[in-house]
Amino acid sequence: MEKYLTPFWLSLRHRLWTKRLWLSSFLAVVTLVSVLNSAAISSTMSVQASPTNPQLGDTVTVLIQADGLTEATPTVVMNQKTYPTFAIAPNRFRALLPTTPLDPPGSLNIQVNGAGDPQAVPQKLTLQLRDRDFPTQSIWLSGGGSDGTDYEFNKVDAFKALVTPTKLWNGKFQRPSEGEITTVYGVRRYYNGEFASDYYHRGVDYGAGTGSPIVAPAAGKVVLVGREADGFKLHGNTIGVDHGQGVASIFLHLSRIDVKEGDVVQAGQQLGAVGSTGAATGPHLHWGLYVNGQAIDPVPWRYGNFE
Ligand SMILES: [Zn+2]
Predict the structure, then answer these.
(1) Which of 262, 196, 273 has its CA nearest to residue 225?
(2) How far, in Å, is the centroid of ligand 1 from the Cα of 161?
(3) Which of 83, 162, 240, 242 is deepest in the core (most CB within 10 A)?
(4) Could you give the CA distance from residue 28 to residue 90 in angstroms, rounded to a whole number?
(5) What is the pLDDT of residues 243-291, one digit of tens each?
(6) What are 126-142's pLDDT values in tens digits?
(7) For the domain 136-303, what is the CATH code?
(8) If you measure from the C-alpha of residue 284 to the centroid of ligand 1, how many angstroms do you get, rounded to a whole number?
(9) Which of 144, 121, 139, 216 has the alpha carbon at shortest distance from 177?
(10) 38 CB-near residues (< 8 Å, 6+ apart)
(11) What is the pTM of this model?
């Protein structure tokens, strides 16, 4: 009997031992899965966009709450183009997405990526970009129009491409001139009767007398000073102010420039004076506001807070 008993007990003990091993490894797997799960849950990003019903020319703000993201900074892709985000609080990021009169109305497909964080699940969001009626102008040109120079276009292109990390503006933007608005943002044009499909008025014009002051609509750093005498034939005397994080103002046709490149300016600080240098039919200020390289409608920036 003992002959049979021993192997039986041995085999029972062995079976129990195996079962315990199996059970503990099962528990280990369960624990590992739940750890992975909780990590995935804690690094899920929540995304909000405003306005929820934008129209052509609006700047769309995307806010990302990204708890548990390790080091990575999220990026935002809208209609195949990638935009930077900036931290505005711990684990909170903001992207500014430009829209213009040249965009097709309809779906804006926005995707937020965790940028290198393997546990961040990409978030998708779709907004409907509303169409908008812009005024039109008919321009009749006889002979060649006034062409700009490569020098000024290169300088202005480099200015528009600038994205610096520090936010310098604070709250609502001020009007840069006391003059009344003579041409609104987004005006479309017909040249000699033909619709100019890539033209829109990339800013707001203020009519004011030559020599009347131009002030900074928000704090920033002067990063562009262009003079008609140096080749700014089309833009005329020009100032470009970087407000940081891809937001920048350009001021055209000035009669006088009171700042130099590198100057840090405060909101309301005088930059120069209204004029009609470059391609201008009369004294006025052209103020263009750019977000990540695109001329957006400055009006929402005057009345709303982009923080
Ligand atoms: Zn203008």
Answers:
(1) 262
(2) 20
(3) 240
(4) 34
(5) 999 999 999 999 999 999 999 999 999 999 999 999 998 999 999 999 9
(6) 999 999 999 999 988 77
(7) 2.70.70.10
(8) 8
(9) 216
(10) none
(11) 0.84
The rounded Å distance from CA 294 to ligand 1 centre is 15
How many residues does this entry show for the chain?
Answer: 307
Joined tokens for residue 203: 């800013």
Confidence of residue 11 (pLDDT cuts 50, 70, 90): very low
In angstroms, what CA-CA distances link 135 with 131, 186, 215, 223, 289? Answer: 13, 8, 27, 32, 19
Q: Quick check: 108 and 78 in contact, CB under 8 A?
A: yes
Structure tokens at 234: 């089309």
Closest Cα to residue 239, out of 204, 283, 186, 285? 285
> 3-class DSSP state for residue 277?
coil
Q: Could you tell me the distance, in angstroms and rounded to a whole number, from the CA of residue 199 to the centre of ligand 1?
A: 12
CATH architecture for residues 46-129: Sandwich (2.60)
Q: What is the mean pLDDT of residues 20-39?
A: 41
